[in-house]
Amino acid sequence: MTDLLQNLINGLAIGSVYAIFALGYTLVFSILGIINFAHGAVFTLGAYFTYTLVVGQFENNGLIKGFNLFPAGSPFHGTPWAFALAALIGATLSGLVAVLIERLAFRPMRARGADPLLALVSSLGVALVIVNLIQILVGAESYNFPPDIYGDLKPALILHVGGKLIVVRTVQVIIFAVSMLLLLILGYVIGRTRTGKALRAVAENPGTASLLGISVSRFIVITFFLSGFLGGLAGTLVSTAFSVAGPYFGVTYGLKGLAVIVLGGLGSIPGAVVGGLVIGLAEAFVPSQYSAYREAVAFALLFVMLLLRPQGLLGQRLIQKV
Amino acid sequence: ADKVATPVPIGIGVAQTSNTALLGQEQVIGARFAEKYINARGGINGTPIKLVFQDTGGDEAGAINAFQNLITKDKVVGIVGPTLSQQAFSADPIADRAKVPVLGPSNTAKGIPQIGAFIARVSAPVAVVAPNAIKQALKLDPKIKKVAVLYAQNDAFSVSETGTFQDTAKAQGLTVATVQKFLTTDTDFTTQVTAVLNENVDLVIVSGLANDGGNLVKQLRQLGYKGSIIGGNGLNTSNIFPVCQQYCDGIIIAQAYSPAQPSANNQLFVKEYTAQYKKAPPQFAAQAFTGVQVMVDALRILDRKKKLADWELSDLRVALNTQILAGKYNTPLGAISFDKEGELNQAAFYVAQIKMKDAKTGTFVFLK
Amino acid sequence: MALLELDNLSVNYGAVQAVRDVSLTVEEGETVTLIGANGAGKTTTLRAISRMVRASEGHVRFAGRDLARLPPDEAVRLGIAQSPEGRQVLARQTVEDNLLLGAYTRRNAAEIRADLERQYRRFPRLRERRTQLAGTLSGGEQQMLAIARALMSRPKLLLLDEPSLGLAPIIVLEIFRIIQELSGAGVTMLLVEQNARLAMQNSHRTYVMEAGQIMFSGMSAEMVNDERVIQAYLGG
Amino acid sequence: MDFLQTYGFLIVTMLQQGLLGLSLYFPLMAGQLSLASPGFYALGGYIAAIMLTSPAFAGWRDALGGWIFPLTWVLAALASALLGVIVGVPALRLRGIYLALATIAFVQILQVVSLNLDITGGAVGLFGIPQAFGFEDRWQYIWIFLPLTVLVLLFARQLERSRVGRALRAIREDELAADAVGISPTRYKVLAFVIGAALAGIVGAMSAPFLNTWNARQGTFDASIAFLAYTLIGGSRSLWGPLLGGALLSSLPELLRGLADWRLVINGLVLVVASLYLPQGIVGALSKLRRPVPPKRPPVAPPPALPLGDAP
Amino acid sequence: MSAPVLQIRGLTRRFGGLIAVNNVSFEVQEGEIFGLIGPNGAGKTTLFNLMTGLTPPSSGTLLYHGADITAQPPHTIAEKGIARTFQNIRLFRSLSALENIKIARHARTRAGLLAGVFGRDRAEERTVDERAWALLDLVGLSSKAGQEAQNFSYGDQRRLEIARALATDPQVLLLDEPAAGMNTSEKGELTAFIRRVQQEFRLTVLVIEHHVPLVMKLCDRVAVLNFGELIAVGDPASVQRDPKVIEAYLGGS
Ligand SMILES: Nc1ncnc2c1ncn2[C@@H]1O[C@H](COP(=O)(O)OP(=O)(O)OP(=O)(O)O)[C@@H](O)[C@H]1O
Ligand SMILES: Nc1ncnc2c1ncn2[C@@H]1O[C@H](COP(=O)(O)OP(=O)(O)OP(=O)(O)O)[C@@H](O)[C@H]1O
Ligand SMILES: CC(C)C[C@H](N)C(=O)O
Ligand SMILES: [Mg+2]
Ligand SMILES: [Mg+2]
Asked: Where do the ABC transporter domain residues begin and end (chain C) (predicted)?
């Protein structure tokens, strides 16, 4: 019973990390039908941006080692609100980077009518550039936020239930809450509003959308900004839980993130969250003697899901009328 | 046929890009430092050395390319590298067939020196180093009974290390209550940690790399684990300080290297290194330094027999290999030598415990 | 001043010149028919007006304004709507959402509702299918949807590309009734039709297009009796 | 000689990666974007590595001598083809990006399995693999990779010209219409998939000795994406595309070696710029320069009336 | 007119709550040109889809020369001799006109993978080529043989699609609104063309068409669908006079 509960908590916790990563990932897919591998890099960037604001300097390696950008006593450090401000600025910067990426790496391709799959390659190139630039600038090691960024919150809540421990990490609760909140906001905007309908029209057929008076390029910019913003925010949050684990930090989520968004339904916003949680739970419930195979769980689920229900849990079926 | 160039080129083929760069980064620093240190002391009997760096990346093909460049284009006399054992299995045979001596600075997997006559290493295999940590932990806390073992299943070296840890633990009469696996790319370890907590163990042994290992320790402590922690070789770097911060405190790590090693050689090395980098040399840097030093020491002897500039490159490489295996060296690792296969004989190993001064800075304190 | 004015318009697809040197005007409130054989360049002409293709030469002027660099969505904002060839319904959205998106450029929710109701009255079949995904509609149903959707933007200029295509006779009559009604309400229309007789009966003027060029034009009432037209388009 | 010594490995790697790019091309002929090749590549490599190192096969090695190598290729091809059928039949009901993702999942699953088996050497992998035909230097591997490349190119070209090639193209263009004119989509999709799988398996078997070691890091998600890049940057509509793309992209980091730290940054930029400016891939861009030749009518005079066909 | 080629027995197809084709039964005789008309959404295209295996029926059976072919896969049905065109043209868009037709010879040729790769298919390829050119001549597109199908105008695409269907050597040809997008004179030409093809190839033709004069002129018999149900079958003149048909389909006049 307590095992079950603990697994549940663990699963939801890991799952919400997946979910929060996947939100921005799936957003871009939903509108452009492309998988943006640079999302992982933007996620990483968000963490580095916020870290730079909060701490101000990098120590051991890289071109800007020791260079103090925000000397001690920076306004972004000390209270939870100051940290929140830094995180928002970090996310905004990430959003802008995403817009820049769209401008430089995707838009010209659309204009030339290239194979949308090429966006995969191009975004991979962008990811490579960002990751290696980070390494050149600040080195490959990880950085950690100061322990007090969430103020006096205790790191974890530890319950004793029937002689066994149940652990709930505070950061995880924060991440879970934020991803749910984002889900609600995004879900509302996309599912219920005129903007959302237009967004879906752009996603389905940009040509037709523009024939209806929808400005395709504006919607794409907005989408990328949002995706980058969410990615950057997610990066910051996740790194407060674990550390800014080097330049490859976010990129490693890219693959698992794929499984998440497919499971939930490619391009579906609630799907990203549900997919994340399902995979998190599935992984948490792998019995420990099979833990070696845990990494395969997400992909096994993905494979089976694709065979049984390619549109994913919450995705819409593609219909084809002859 | 080629002559030996001056300054004498020595190849460094380690990971400067990719995920593995985190470790390679320290090796680069150690080697660079060695070059400066040695040339400041007259190089090889007056002839300076010149290190040639070729990035291996993190994969096998990258290591082969780097080695091949070093061997034929850069015409190095010997190579220190690569970073990972898996890369060594791929690239070392290339050097071996080309009859170029290789010193593995960090390859700890089983079977490395056996790749060929030209392959040796300055990194002691896990089977030799790891057991010391458990013995030390028991010395610190004789009441330890139950152990949890965790390891990164996608890292070759962690996998072999955990085997040694588990065997030693059993040999010392401890019960291995749970074995948990993770990936070097993991960031969330709640699942593993709760499994550990629920077993009520008194000792946790972690084999992984710096990021994941550090995070794991941090989460263990945050979630209330109070017992002892042993970290494997991958955690043996000050890079983990920013990861687990104050939670790093108390991790016991078996060392192939200790800044506290008392030899005069080491103390000088530590002094100058610290003066330059503002921190004590980490193991990977010290081992890379040692690799370069061993090559140079061996070259000095050869140079005395016949000036290096007069050697045919290919002859020198062969002679260098023989000389490396034959010699005894006073290095930061202490007095070392090699057996005939190229396996390292190292006199002393160390066990250190991390002491954190504040969230960022800490030291490895060596235990007696 | 003519509401729509094409001035020596040419359009290329790669090496193919689909429209060559076309000049044509549509006065405010006028309905103009464009007829021509398959491949004559009619669709291309319409697409150039709605900015879906770029003109390689010449100008498109709408209400005196040159549309040269305008993106298609801006053209819609200016009041140009098109019921395109191939219908182009949004297959994954419902019939009703398709219609509402037709009114994307408009803001007044009450008016939009009223117009939606009007379309449903015109095409009862669409009301029946309101919640069905547009991609699963039959060909003719999609055609109705495309026309209704174009009407939802309350255009000043309506471009209809073969509106009767695939429709049952009874609906074809309905379409032309609607064209009459719109015309009565002052909507300007440019109509491409294969059903040339009906189109001419319901329009003011007619242009005949061949191989990318305008061959001749005239008042529709006279064109119906023109030998050349009868020969080529009315089946002698 | 020095040139071959230094760059021989690179040159053979270019061929090897080009071949892997080609392994994607076969399913792509039928419009199927399969990224499963790294899985079959890994499988082929393991088969060769096991046969060449495991004591269980010592007898075979002694008996067969150098013939053991071709045998590893054949077995790798067969095993990959078999696995290809098993995976392909269900997976090929998917299209486009969905198939790509399913095949990536397949690759990942295979990787986790190989990390956990004893026979594959777990995470350390298998090492000390004997050299094919006693090759001493990397460049000598050109003697097996080059003939394979030539054979595969010939095979692919002939295939494209044939009835089966047409059927694949038809499926690529419109599966449903192809079905309606009498082409069984499943059958031909699986066929193309299996050809690609077998090729990747053979390349893996040849690569194990070439790399000296084999482990679970061969044939991963990264490789899937790399192969995709080969195909798209090279040009997915011509068999030269994936070959060229594989050769160029795999050599890029090496050509940029001089840039040290910056080489991967530049590598990334090259990927972006190539995607932007070569939307049809390199070969696509080149073939634009040539005007397509209009098909020539067979010399016989067209019969005045239509033949009634050769079927009843 | 002899034995029935096609016997449709109680075919029904539901989409969720919607009954697109409702218990439809009729027979088509060998060599006739059979018209299928009805309002938009009456189920005509769906009926074609049922007959060609693209959509499995919810119930009912389909007999071809007396044999049950219900729910067989499309390629099997095509092989047996039923070919079709699509209401929304489905050509192999980026292939040339010639290729489009050669592909459709698939079911009538044999060369397998190995034969193709080893060049043992020369003779067969030659006849494929000849046939394809002849069909292009027939539809008047030989001069555009090398052009990509997607660059053809609508009317040319329709012609090409018919040629592609003929290339499968069908006995039964299903045409879904072949005259859509053609002007009156072109429709006239098309009528003549269908007749000619029907005779030369000894085909049975089913045609869905909204252009009533064409249907009347072309068809031997006509069936009328409304809301998925068969409301009339018979010769064109009598169907045209049927009040049910007038009300549902023809309107006013
Ligand atoms: N995307 C395209 N690429 C290349 N050529 C094209 C393209 N679209 C149309 N064409 C060519 O341009 C010419 C004009 O085509 P368009 O579609 O405008 O004719 P249309 O008069 O509308 O014919 P239809 O009555 O058949 O619809 C034709 O020759 C056609 O083949
Ligand atoms: N896949 C599907 N899902 C849901 N409804 C469908 C589907 N396919 C067809 N329908 C519905 O079935 C009905 C019949 O469609 P069908 O295409 O057969 O009509 P049709 O008689 O060919 O009409 P038209 O003359 O307009 O082409 C339509 O109302 C259509 O909306
Ligand atoms: C850098 C180290 C973690 C490498 C490891 N010792 C190995 O042999 O692979
Ligand atoms: Mg047109
Ligand atoms: Mg229809």
From this structure: 4-236
The edge-to-edge listing of strands for the beta sheet with C16-26 is C16-26, C4-13, C57-62, C65-66
Distances (CA, A) of A147 to A90, A157, B245, D190, E171: 19, 16, 9, 55, 80
Dist. CA E12–CA E38, nearest whole Å: 17
Which secondary-structure segment (H or E) carries C60? strand C57-62
Residue of C nearest to E45 (CA): C138
Tell me: pLDDT of D310 over 60: no
Do A313 and A271 form a contact (C-beta atoms < 8 A)?
yes
Number of folded domains in chain E?
1
Would you call E186 and C37 a contact, using CB atoms and an 8 Å cutoff?
yes
Task: Please name every residue paired with C161 in a beta bridge, in sequence order, or none if there are none.
Answer: C192
Residue D303 CB coordination number (10 Å):
10
Best CA proximity match to A24, nearest among A289, A241, A227, A190: A227
How much is the average pLDDT of E137-143? 92
The alpha carbon of A182 is separated from its chain's Cα centroid by a whole number of angstroms, namely 11
Q: Quote the mean pLDDT of chain D.
A: 89
**Residue E222, in any domain of the structure:** no
Q: Which of C129, C139, C231 sits opposite E87 (nearest CB)?
A: C139
Report how far apart, in Å, the C-alpha atoms of C60 and of each of C2, C13, C24, C67, D83 are: 12, 18, 10, 6, 60
Q: Measured from the CB, is residue E40 less than 6 Å from ligand 2? A: yes
Ligand 1 centroid from CA D224, angstroms: 40
Residue of D nearest to A137 (CA): D261
DSSP-derived 3-state class of residue D296: coil
* Poorest-pLDDT segment among A181-190, B68-77, D182-191, E52-61: A181-190
Identity at B326, one-letter amino acid code: A
Does some domain include residue E146? yes
Q: Under an 8 A CB cutoff, do D124 and B62 touch? A: no
Sorting pLDDT into bands at 50, 70 and 90, what band is E1? very low
The answer to whether position E82 is within a domain reads no
Write out the DSSP string of B312-325: BHHHHHHHHHHHHH
Q: What is the pLDDT of residue A146?
A: 79
Note whether E79 contacts D182, CB cutoff 8 Å: yes
Alpha-carbon E235 to chain mean position = 20
Give C135-172 pLDDT, tens digit per residue. Answer: 999 989 999 999 999 999 999 999 999 999 989 999 99
* Set of chain D residues whose Cβ sits within 8 Å of the Cβ of A127: 268
- Report pLDDT for E35: 96
pLDDT over threshold 90, residue C8: yes
Q: How many CB atoms lie within 10 A of CB C7?
A: 16
Phi and psi for D296 in degrees, rounded to 5? -95, 140
Is B touching C (3+ C-beta pairs, cut-off 8 A)? no
Range of the domain at E127: 92-167
Q: Residue D305 above 60 pLDDT?
A: no
Q: Which residue of D has its CA nearest to A308?
A: D90
Instruction: Kindly state the average pLDDT of the residues A52-57.
Output: 82
E190 C-beta neighbours (distance < 10 Å), count: 22
Kindly report the pTM of this predicted structure: 0.90
ipTM of this complex: 0.89
- Say whether pLDDT at D301 is over 60: no
Give, in degrees to the nearest 5, the angle at Cα A123 between A117 and A125: 115
For CA atoms D294, D299, D302, D306, the dihedral sign is: negative
pLDDT value of residue E23? 96
Residue A160 beta carbon below 6 angstroms from any ligand 2 atom: no
From atom 1 of ligand 1, which residue's Cα is the shortest distance away? E151
Statement: residue B316 has pLDDT above 80: yes
Please give the Cα distance from D273 to D275 (Å, whole number).
Answer: 5
What confidence tens digit (pLDDT) does each residue in B134-170 have? 998 999 999 999 999 999 887 777 888 898 899 999 9
**Cα C7 to ligand 4 centre (Å):** 21
